[in-house]
Amino acid sequence: MCKKCISLLAVSLTLFGCTTEKTWDFQTDYFSIGINDKGYITSMKNTTVSPNREFSPADKPSPLLSLYDSEKKVYYTPQKAVYNAEADCFTLEYPNGSVATITLQPADKYFKLTLNSLEPRNGIDCIQWGSYYTNIDNLLGEIIGVARDTSDVVNYSIGMLALNDNTIGGTADIEGDAAPFQYIIHTPDAKRFPLPDSLHEGQVFTLGGNGISDVAFYANKEPYYRIMYGNAAMVDSLGRIFLNYQSRDRTKSRQVHYSLIPNMPANIPNHIDVEPIPGVDFIGSSIALWGSPDSTALMDVIQNIVLSEGLPHPTVNGKWIKDPAAYSPDVMTSGNQYDSIISYTAKLGFPAIHAYDQGFLRPDRANEGYLDGRNQEKKPFRFHSGNKSHREFADMAAAKGIMLGRVNITNSLAPGTKDASPVPSDSLCYQQKRILMKDLSPEDTVIIVDDPTYLEEIASWEGHCENLNMVKIGGELIHYLGVSETAPYTLKNVTRGYWGTKPTAHKANDTVYKLQVTINYGYEGIIPNLALQDKIAEYYADVSHLCGLTLYDFDGQEFLFNNGHGYYSAKRFFRKMFGRAKELGVPYIRFSGATLSEGSWHYQSVWNVGGGRNLYDIDTREWGSATSQGKDLRDVTYSNYYPVSFGGNFAIKDTSTVEQYEHVQAISVGYGATYFLAINQKDVESCPQKDQIFAAIRTWEDARHANAFPRAIKKLLRDPSYDWRLEAGADGNSWTLHRLVDGKSVETFDLKRAKGY
């Protein structure tokens, strides 16, 4: 199939007569686009059907590339385009006088677009690919940027992927480069879920609760309340999905007024001076634009892009972590008794043990990655035969092919750790920088600064915890609350030598840094700047190498956004961690976390956040009976080709039955869900059916990893009203799936191991 451009004249009839415009057409195996001489995509077609189905709305052509001036808050879209077929290059002219050159290279399964130059810039500090408008109105993948129609009639999706770290999912106008965490109104099926007259497509609502309790965020069970974890895909007033990626000139200093969860008193925006990054610019920004049958898009097209363009492609047991056949639950411990935990996990066929009962792991570079001392003096894992260190327990688990993990507070530099106190690092992230106006003795509490602007704001954008409101002068942390409104501008309610730092003398003209911090509730800490954050990322790889921890649950993962670089910061963090791990010979790090973003999508294996009746209620068989968290996170993950989560759930107790776990596994396989199976050794031993439960779960997991469930069967498994039993064949490559009514088989399906699995 020829994938070169075909130049043609397209005739458009309008109300005012006949106009002629030039259009260039491009094609991949499954997708074609047309770009006109104004620089707009005017056609997006599914070429796998005849006649080709058109997905570009006639009333909304898509600018190939938009320019953004963040000081003026103005977008510029192209007004003229010229195409050079020999160079595969478009030249776009803009109303502000800028001229962009873009290469468009068709591959077998996607188009690669790259910004080569923009001259003159004329105030442009951010570029945006798109918005690319579609007439798809089913599922929006707001994290990676995809419009999906999953119906059997249409079965087609259009999406984008960033091909370099400084190209991120979302629009250019988002403060802090991380989209607001909020609800929008969008129905995935207007016939099944019609909107009430009081609501309209694209309408924005804030989260529920007080803005602090993450369980209370999820407050709308109706299917047309769509929680948003990004804005790489959005909807217009008709519910049609459009896509956006952006790239910023990060070499320039700038200030943002940022909150990840706006419109809530506990999360009002703060003003943050964003650290410039030398050499990180939007020139070279590159995306893949693709269209494909939805049923094969993930493994056939998205994986092809990832491999062809050298994007992160973590694998476990030889399979890409995004392959639904590689999805798996993990064990999550409680009770701190580990004699049988490895044995349980092996029987279940799960890949990892999440030692949740060991509490938070805080990054402390003072231990150089040796959590239990260089000689493993500490033994935190309890065994009747003698307690074990991390390394000892990890080695025992690894002998059975099982990983060991901990929950950690991503980049929060806690009091008492090397980079926070008693000697704070000079590489801390700050919100504001001011000048000390007079000398200070170690005892002085009258601290006068040159400018009070924004110093009245309580630090962080989340929670605004007063005890974390502090400045740094030299090697001293100083707590304060408020600043005088008139000169001399004096900090109020001052406490010297905060967090165990030493009160010292400071000279006039010393720098006063108002620090960027986290929140309370066990997460207390200071945010590092990017250079120190790089070191923290490498520290986690060192811990993996030295102590055997290869599962991390990155609680507070959203703290990676606190420096104002948003999804870029998250990408940078995980690239550093995985890069260092590769250098050390750590083959795979599995991780979950408090959020999922375009910055972590490629690296993150699972997203097992929350749990219990908030996620999936095994008794009522619904996605979240206590809150809407289960429904909300299901919709986000499924739409973004990502494993759905049941969170920490389904603890095995004395009343647990095999039938309960047959149901859990059926829904898990049907949707592609993972979870942390709550295991307490004492409780498990009290369960009469524990061995049968282990065997039933293992049977489902073996069949899942054999990719034995075809698409039609997965759709049936999603129906919570059905009961199922899965039996393994003697050959290890076949299974019989029974649909049950009143405990009896009424329908059977023969399943086989798929080729290559």
From TrEMBL:
Residues 1-17 form the signal peptide. Keywords: Signal. It comes from the Bacteria. The keyword Signal applies. This is Uncharacterized protein.
